[in-house]
Amino acid sequence: MTGFLTMLKVNMKLLLRNKGYLCFLILLPLFSILLLNIQVSSSFNLDDLDYYSIHEMENGTRTPLNMTNDKLNVMVSDSDQSYLSDFILQQLANTGSYQFYRYRTDITDADTAAALATDFANRNTIAAVLYIPPNLAENIHMDSTVSALYLFEASEDGRIPMLAEGLDTVLNSLVIYQGLAKNDSNIFKTIVDNISERKLEKESVSLSLNDEMHLNTLQQHQQSNVGYSLAIVSIAFLFSGVFIGSIVIEERHNLVFTRILLTNISITNYGLVKLLLSFLTTAIQIVVMGIGIALFVKVDFGLSLGSYLFFIFGIGIIFNLLSVIAGVLADNLLSSSYLAFAVWTVSAMLSGLYFPLDATSIWWNRLALLMPPHWVIRCSKMVMLGQGGAYSTFLLIVFAFIAIILSVGFLGIKAKK
Fold first, then answer.
1. Is the pLDDT of residue 42 over 50?
2. What is the pTM of this model?
3. What residues pair up with 76 in beta bridges, in sequence order?
4. Distances (CA, A) of 24 to 12, 191, 284, 318
5. In angstroms, rounded to a whole number, what is the distance separating the alpha carbons of residues 175 and 143?
């Protein structure tokens, strides 16, 4: 027992003297939780349908950076720039099915608009392009909606015919309003303004099909923030484990490991010291993150503080141990660092931390099951949707990964002996 405590004390002193270890112990966890403080309302507001579904684009900007994956993305070339074009887009946006990216242009003919639509479609993954010609009110006054708008298909999305029907419905309603106004433009504008002020009562309902979990829009953005923070903090876990693994490498190169084996200390105690160091390191990082969330995070990111730290602690233990085992198996610090960075890159990419896996292929989803961060995303979805078994499922996954990693680690230590 004395030898065990002595090794633990010496290893802790070596780690705390290392500035790189302290950086991954404190600074990176703090930086990761700052991502949770991204104000969801700064990019959209669920109660403000105008702002969320119609994005005003600057002329010259070729690629929208905030394209959604749950609505039909439509580029709009608005040459009318009147209250009528605002009304048409808003009526469609209020359905919650479309997201518009509007460019205020001065195009006067359909051929130029078609060329612009082709160019834009070749540069983006936009689904459709809508051209609103000038003098829209005159077309409405003539009771003709044939040439009022032009819709260009940029993909084979099945929702485009629904958009075309929605456009016809809105234009026909404008014709009716014009008839009620008896061609008086002031009365016509008053009617349109009154209709615009009427807000839809909207209720979001999540449906589960074939055990798939579907989040609403707010929850999707909240989970995106959790995924980004997990991507940053996971590299802190991995490289803090690299520093622990570097002790193993140095002890082996300086024959300290050999001298330890000549004493009464067993290989099991030697491995338990490294295991305890990983637990202590992860615990300190979790405490730092908990304090940081309490002090700096001012928004609801979809999970309670306890749930978030619970999931992060499990990932931290797995990644710390994984890096320690890399130190056991590698011959030098550089190799173990390369391995840790590769694990971080691949696991973050395959786990769905940067993008949802809903539209990916079957083999990608199956491969994601082997990545620990994927289970944080999966179980956090269960918590957000109020489903049971999230915590027990995650605990089983963590224990399974730890059992595999420890088995490989002890085999590696015996092989190096």
1. no
2. 0.61
3. 102, 130
4. 15, 61, 11, 16
5. 6
